[in-house]
Write a structure and sequence with these properties.
alpha/beta, four-stranded parallel sheet, 8 strands, binds iron/sulfur cluster, 2-thiour_desulf, DUF523 domain-containing protein
């Protein structure tokens, strides 16, 4: 099974009520290979909700208590985001996950690059907080921007292997 950011499958769970449909994932989803997850909603955040970014570090730093996830007005949303991480990890304990395809640059789902906390669309190195937690579990992470045909076949082979 492949864990997929729910917004990539067209679910309107994005902070502004929109989605980030990635058509390449619809076939694998129809074949039952994808588990859609929105950690921010699982953390109890509403949709729509304030845009938020990691300030003072990366997702790894949030997990370690060295950075926070703030809304643009300074509201500290870290507890809700961490709640979503805990729920996501509960899913991973219940359902074997071979890989994850996550939304690029999100403070929750971003892999390798995330928005820098300035709310100006500038990016910095680091994972989102849920991505960081999944990486700690040894789950291979990809974003929708990695999905060349060849890469998608590789990910699907991983996912089919543990269904
Ligand atoms: Fe939810 Fe992740 Fe998509 Fe944000 S990027 S809407 S947390 S699934």
């Amino acid at each position: 099974m492949i864990l997929v950011s729910a917004c990539l499958l067209g679910l309107s769970c994005r902070y502004d009520g929109g989605h980030n449909l990635c058509p390449a994932l619809l076939g694998p989803a129809a074949a039952g290979l994808c588990l859609p997850v929105c950690p921010e909603q699982l953390g109890g955040l509403p949709t729509p909700r304030p845009a938020a970014e990691i300030v003072g570090g990366s997702g790894q730093d949030v997990l370690a208590g060295r950075a926070k996830i703030l809304a643009a007005d300074g509201l500290d949303l870290t507890p809700a985001f961490l709640g979503g991480v805990r729920q996501t990890l509960a899913l991973v304990r219940a359902i074997p996950i071979a890989a994850a395809v996550l939304k690029a640059r999100s403070p929750t789902c971003g892999v390798g690059r995330i928005y820098d906390g300035s709310f100006t669309r500038v990016v910095k190195d680091g994972d989102g907080v849920a991505a960081a937690a999944l990486a700690e579990k040894g789950i291979p992470l990809y974003t929708e921007e990695d999905l060349t045909a060849e890469e998608l076949q590789k990910i699907l082979a991983l996912g089919a292997g543990n269904c």
